[in-house]
Amino acid sequence: MASATESDLISGRTDSTEAVAGIAVGLAALLFALSLATFFDVVSVTGTLVGVPVVPLVGGLLILLGGAIITFGIGSYLGYVETTPSPTAGLVAAVAAAVPWFVAGVSVGSIMLGSGSAGGVVLGLVTGAVAFAATAFPREDLGSTLPIGALSILAGLVLLSGIIGPEWVWDLGWEQQASLTAGFVVPALTLATSLYVGWAAAKAYGGFGARGRHVGAYALVYVNALSIVAVLVILLAFTVFRGIPGLLTGAEIGLGVGPEVGLFGLSVQLPVSLPFVMNGVALLNDYQGVLPAIVGTFWLVIGAVLFAVPLGIGAAIFLTEYAERGRFTQAVEVATNGLWSTPSIVFGLFGFAFLIPRFGNGKSLLSGMLTLGFMLLPLVLITSREAMLSVPDEYRDASAALGVTKWQTIRSVVLPAALPGVVTGVILGVGRIAGETAPILLTMAGGTFVPGSQTVDVIGGFKFTATPPFVANPELLQATSALPYQLFALITAGVGLGDSVANPNDFRWATALILLVVVLSFYAIGIGARYYFRRKLQYE
Amino acid sequence: MSETTHSERTDTDSTIETTAGETIEQVQESWTDYKFQGEAKLTSEGLDVYYGDDHALKDVTIEIPEKSVTALIGPSGCGKSTFLRSLNRMNDRIRSARVDGSVQFDGKEIYQEGIDLVELRKRVGMVFQSPNPFPKSIHENITYGPRKHGDIETGLLARLLGRDDWDEAEELVEQSLRQAALWDEVADRLDDNALGLSGGQQQRLCIARCLSVDPEVILMDEPASALDPIATSKIEDLIHDLAEDYTVVIVTHNMQQAARISDQTAVFLTGGKLVEYDDTDKIFENPESQRVEDYITGKFG
Ligand SMILES: Nc1ncnc2c1ncn2[C@@H]1O[C@H](COP(=O)(O)OP(=O)(O)OP(=O)(O)O)[C@@H](O)[C@H]1O
Ligand SMILES: [Mg+2]
């Protein structure tokens, strides 16, 4: 009963009342998903869904939803549904209800009275105040359902009656060509309303009161997390679907169709042919590919990591374990943070002005590696330092008390304990530099379409000489390309594609997809490494 | 060395009244003449420790004989741990700490320029108040010290050079763990992470780890505070056995324990002062100072 006199330990609520609230929650979730799908063009506002035009369908569902939640609230108030409501829904809920009602009032007012008129604002203030009062003053089961249920019905009516139809456009007037279209307004309206009603329904599902608020908050947090994941998945799916056709152009599977790969003197002919990732660009190619850019990106990241990680970790060791904490360490900290925030084009310019004249006086892989290495350095330093600072001093004390030297302690206790943190930093940094375009543009890149001959062979390029500098690697001094730059070049200067690229758009999306795959595989390696190091520190 | 007298001591706080009406000065006169059997292993003279402006240890003079058990007792916060840490210079690692006075180990001043701290701590081992095993396997925790000292080498390089101390390592692990009364509980999971052990097991692991480097002096800060009676009695037996070859200094809050295991007892009271130091029997049966008697009998903390 609404008057919660008996023990709350076991709720006497029946399955059917729970089911009503549960259906409302589910309906709200469905509408939420539907609005997201509409935003991302998966469902079109002009189209139909299960044979019904989308906009009226959504409107009808909203009315249904509002009706359900109001019914539940009144039922609870009259004692037909067993709940444990508080005396009031609270200030937060009241403000939360007042805001959309204010917006609704202003919108209705300005549609009826003309935009910009004071009447709209007045109407908005009135509706907002009423919603506030209707939420704050009655008992919680009414307060948290009536205003929001009514809002949902209002929104539903607007859509169902065709006031906002699929072809609806609202000219904003204050700027040329700026207008609100149904394609944006319908999903936005549905999204907001379904969130509100979902929240109220979740509270009702929990039977109001403290438990209801807990369930409501839980539902909101859950939806929040889910939508973040959804956005990520949609982004990925978007790229993957558009990239696949270009990637598979001319793909073949079968014995002896692939190119020959030499490994340790053995040469094997691959049974798969995927021209997009196995070819460069050449006049005589059947299909063009981006192999040089893939290899370029790969070596670029390896080079930058090899350069930055030892230096960064070394500096972090010095700063945390050896340097006295004071002015100097603070200055270094400020400098590294500043360096990390420095725009990448500035690093690029530095590489262009400083590195290029020193390494062969032309754009080269080596200059690109070093420039990106400089960019990576501050992040590696910051995260390594953070990780080392969080290693408990007890470990250092224990080691010192065993008569172990400081350096041995750092190497055998501090570094292993800090390694997962360090790896996290490197992962983040690699994510940034692998997709960097500007510095590469200035220090390393060749043309828009990279000939297969520009594929670097860093390992094979090493030559040992009897005279200084003893080691030489012309491959490192060659200009090459990297995926982000190639993508940039394709988009900005994509005209004049060779005949063999049938569909330039597919080619671009495939390049984007490959870039994504390369970056994600670096991530995967990093996360694997972190998992490995962390396992060693922990017990199951 | 044990014959040293401390006539140069000056005690400025001689006005502090004890419950019996005697002054601190009088009390200290009585034990500064305390002579024990054998040689002094550790000697502190006029030792003061400050944490910033906080004067945590005041003018402590004491001689700790070798191959015996010395108990340090006193109320919480009176400076027992501080004193213990100043014996192997672990106080150096606390930034705000400052030490005045002298501590001699085997007659050599340890608070002097050029002392090799690594060597000192190798010979004066320590078990901390709160267990602090490394986040490594139990096995690695024990072999850590000897490995770093080069006493045990099992790595690939060592094997290539024809040296493989695998058997020694196994033996050392078992022996240390047995001494610390932990072997039976962990024998079948030596490769598990030490952080997965219970608090009391971790404490015993730390004792085993300390024993593994074979120090001459073992400083123990409440080694049995988290242990059940059975493990406690095993640790007490261990301490008793250790005293045949090692010098043991142990902090404890347990009077019975101090009475059972120690040869001599030093009582610190609030304010960081060493109030009485004598044979354990004497301290517990007939202390000079009324304040010490009150503390021991539980009338005063
Ligand atoms: N690292 C430190 N920094 C500042 N002050 C400290 C530090 N360690 C100890 N002190 C202070 O020195 C005094 C003595 O502390 P100590 O740890 O030696 O006491 P204790 O006798 O070991 O106490 P307990 O029996 O509780 O372990 C205390 O007043 C304490 O506040
Ligand atoms: Mg202590």
Automatic annotation (TrEMBL), chain A:
Compartment(s): Cell membrane
PROSITE patterns (UniProt xref): ABC_TM1 (PS50928)
GO cellular component: plasma membrane
Membrane-related topology note: Multi-pass membrane protein
Coiled coil: none
Domain of life, source organism: Archaea
Predominant cellular place of this UniProt entry's protein: membrane
Ranges annotated as spanning the membrane: 20-40, 52-78, 90-112, 118-137, 144-164, 184-205, 217-241, 261-284, 296-319, 339-357, 364-382, 509-533
Protein family membership: Belongs to the binding-protein-dependent transport system permease family. CysTW subfamily.
PANTHER family according to UniProt: PHOSPHATE TRANSPORT SYSTEM PERMEASE PROTEIN PSTA-RELATED (PTHR43470)
Name of the molecule in the record: Phosphate transport system permease protein PstA
Automatic annotation (TrEMBL), chain B:
InterPro entries xref list: AAA+_ATPase, ABC_transporter-like_ATP-bd, ABC_transporter-like_CS, P-loop_NTPase, PstB-like
Region (Disordered): 1-20
A biological process term (GO) from this entry: phosphate ion transmembrane transport
Domain of life according to the entry: Archaea
Protein's UniProt keywords contain ATP-binding: yes
Domain ABC transporter: 42-296
Classification via NCBIfam families: 3a0107s01c2 (TIGR00972)
Protein name: Phosphate ABC transporter ATP-binding protein
Native source species: Haloarcula sebkhae
